[in-house]
Amino acid sequence: MESLSSILSPKPLSFSSHKLSPMAASATISSLSFASMPSQQQRTSTPKRTSKPTKTLSPKIPTSTITTPTFPPKKVLVPIGFGTEEMEAVIIVHVLRRAGADVTVASVEPQLEIAASGGTKLVADTSISTCSDEVFDLVALPGGMPGSARLRDCKVLQKIMSKQAEEKRLYGAICAAPAVALLPWGLLKKKQTTCHPAFMDKLPTFWAVKSDIQVSGELTTSRGPGTTFEFALSLVEQLFGESITKEVGQLLLMSTADDNPRKEEFNKVEWSVDHTPRVLIPLATGSEAIEVVTIADILRRAKVDVIIASVEKSVQILASQGTKIVADLLIGDAAESIYDLIILPGGTVGAERLHKSKILKKLLKEQNSAGRIYGAVCSSPAVLQRQGLLKDKRATAHPSVINLLTNEAVNGAKVVIDGKLITCRGLATVTDFALAIVGKLFGYGRARSVAEGLVFEYPRS
Question: DSSP string spanning 85-120?
Fold first, then answer.
């Protein structure tokens, strides 16, 4: 059986010599009211706006969780607070749910809706106080500031984490959280640990390790948004084993080799503008949460004005894998402005609902006619195809829908740019996609700077 290192191709992972617990021993890796909905129902049902049957893009992208033996589901807690890093929170939740874990997202704030560090608004499943007496197989802390400090200052969460460590169940933290939360709680003692480069000097020197992923007994730590997929898959392997980890990695389009180019560009034109770029990301029920959050987060880091607009009747959206996102505006209000770039996120259900939005269809048509930039990821390039916006254009898409595109479909490359059109395969490739946009708008220097903040390996030229 291949190990996780054959699925990914990041730098080798580092492990301490401390003995792993039985559960961790397999970690050998080289105006909807969401609050009133039961959390499991939120994750497994998709509300319909009408009773009419919905046509879907075919073939469907696999979105279900992995089939696992009929044991009790692994229970996972992911706490969030004001300033939590949204990429880290959403990727951790998405990956673990895909693997079959029963994930609870709990707010450490008085309310369930929180504004994340990059400005995206997320809605938790429950309050942390409801989790105090539960037993979790894993508790995983996302990072971000001041989110990590908000987690640290939550006494209920501190008690949960201390008990988790005492009873030798799995726990993990990423980015600032190892140094800001776990360290003052006393949960890093004699544990080799990594964290975001900006916080490495806070860690005990002898135990600090500059690896992307560090497993030390029951504790797993990682560096930042750019290493979150690897972090989440490490946790999946420790919970479920190698086989499921490999399957999840393939569904996420994790890189299996370095021979496929990150980006191919045709009919090169300049994208630079003489003002702060404005970008519209339309959002629908079932939209791929990882793609929405990652693109918005990275572009905002680059100082782009990003608007997430709901095509539904409410700004509160149940996205893929049960992630709840609150849009900035309704699409009708967003349509009053002009955007330098419109980006369609994927997700089979979400893409179909985007396609049915008359307002969005009009915006895209005007965008094309005016010679402005537009793009799509995952399943949504097929939406552009159906609307006649890929004519004589080279594009890529999720492997399951790329055959729906024109004869100009480009296989292999993660990101394809043709003039003022940009597309990508989706999921784990959207970081490259968003950084490609930053590079086109601002130049290589800005893109590389953003990538360094993410702790994401970016080409030197």
Answer: -HHHHHHHHHHHHHTT-EEEEEESSSSSEEE-TTS-
Instruction: Identify the helix (H) or strand (E) that includes residue 358.
Output: helix 358-369
Q: How many residues can be counted in the chain?
A: 461
Whole-structure pTM value: 0.86
Q: Establish whether 154 is a catalytic residue.
A: no
Q: Residue 281: phi, psi to the nearest 5?
A: -120, 105
* Active-site residue, selected from the candidate residues 131, 154, 378, 424: 378
Q: Which two structure tokens, joined as six digits, stand for 123?
A: 């809605």
Which residues are 325's β-sheet partners? 122, 317
Give the span between the Cα atoms of 375 and 364, in whole angstroms.
Answer: 10
For the range 368-372, what are the long-range contacts, defined as Cβ-Cβ under 8 Å and sequence gap of 24 or more? Answer: 371/420, 372/338, 372/339, 372/340, 372/341, 372/342, 372/420
Position 29 scores a pLDDT of 36
Q: 442 near 302, Cβ under 8 Å?
A: yes
The CA distances from residue 375 to 25, 282, 385, in Å, are 43, 12, 11
| Segment 342-370, tens digit of pLDDT | 999 999 999 999 999 999 999 999 999 99
